[in-house]
Structures are given as structure tokens and as C-alpha cells.
Amino acid sequence: MLSVESEYSISDSLKLSLKGDFFIPGNTEDGLYGKYKDLSCFGITAVYKF
Asked: Which tens digits make up the pLDDT trace of 4-21?
């Protein structure tokens, strides 16, 4: 599994976040990748504070 996360502040009150979890095949052919490959996902979050 590869997990990536990034944040960016546009201003003092607005922040954007991007997070992704990706299931990728490993070096061995143990047959487990097929069970988890559909669970890869990503999300975008915006936070506004006032």
C-alpha cells in the first residue's frame, strides 16, 4: 500500500488537503493484490476558519 498526503494553505483561513491510499502489486505473486486493488481511494478536503 502506498499512502500519500499533501496540504496547501491558500490563506490564513483556507486550507486544502489531498490524501490518497493506493494498493499496488508487490514483488511477490502471493495472490493477495486482487483482494485489495478495489480499495484504492483518494479524498480532497477544504477547511475554512473564520
From this structure: 999 999 999 999 999 999
The residues spanned by each domain of the chain are: 1-24+40-49
Residue 40 in grid coordinates: 484504492
pLDDT, position 8: 96
Cα torsion through 16, 19, 41, 22, rounded to 10: 150
> What predicted TM-score, i.e. pTM, was given to this entire model?
0.64
Residue 26 Cα distances to 18, 31, 35, 37, 45, angstroms = 24, 10, 13, 12, 29
Instruction: Please return the burial class of 17, using the count of CB atoms within 10 Å of its CB with bins 0-12, 13-18 and 19+.
Output: middle
